[in-house]
Amino acid sequence: MDPTLKNRLLSGLKDQAPGLSPQLRLAAKYVTDNQADFGLDSIRETARKARVSTFTFVRLARLMGIDRFDDFREPFRHALVSLTEHVEGRDWLDRWRSAEVGGASQADAAANSLAVVQRSLQRQSPEKLHETVQMLLSARTVFLTAMRASFGLAYHFHYVARMALRSMELIPRHMSTAIDELNDAGPEDVLMAITFTPYSHETMEAAAFAKSKGTKLIFVTDSEIVAPGLEADMTLLVSTLSTHHFACNSGAMALMEVLLAMIFTEGGPEAHKRIAQYETLRRDHSAYWSAPKKQ
Known about the structure:
Blueprint: H1 5-16, H2 22-33, H3 35-40, H4 43-50, H5 54-63, H6 69-78, H7 91-97, H8 103-122, H9 126-138, E1 142-146, H10 151-161, E2 168-171, H11 178-181, E3 190-194, H12 201-212, E4 216-221, E5 234-237, H13 250-266, H14 268-284
Parallel strand pairs: 1-2, 1-3, 3-4, 4-5
Helix pairs in contact: 2-5, 7-8, 8-13, 9-13, 10-13
């Protein structure tokens, strides 16, 4: 089998998504977001999970130049990798799982977090992350936005990155909206938006507004197809699969840490100077607790 077929199909689905009907768009988004399940499940189960008809997937296959659903699914099945990738030294997980109280759920959640981190980092090429960091370092202003559960990721990234990146602003601030803060944004600026399914209305609105002003857009998200017609300049995909009802942000957090490390490295002497200044400032103003000296 052609090893490039799966990636070519995914690229085709992403390119055609804006012009598809709502039902076909749902099916295309399901395939791109759930590649492992798509490779395993029958057409009936796939349709049930995607909440469309089986015929919709047949139509989608034909749209991609493939006559049969099974032939459409085969490249995904062929490339399928277990959702629980190998992790060195998993004996501790087995010990947890054998515990009578809570062990199984604890072990499953831990294994999932490790796998999510691995999948998320494997998706990033050095070239893509280098380009992303250069976009941030060269921007006049870097606007960073996220809402609800994603806000914690944005807050941490902003708190650390601003020590090396003077131009970074976390929006919205105070009682304004992200759009208020983007009023003066332009082509020299960058908006970095963090959002995962179900996508925040405020974040998507801010992204569309930024693009309308010519501002570069970086998405940190879980799908190639977030909003048809809204094209990001850079999309950093992470896995958010979870053993509970809400998304697992372990992979996104790992990506944030990698970006921070690269910002500090590629920021050069100026970034290191700013970090040293912050450390001196905090030490001089007793920002960190220390035990009283014995008399």
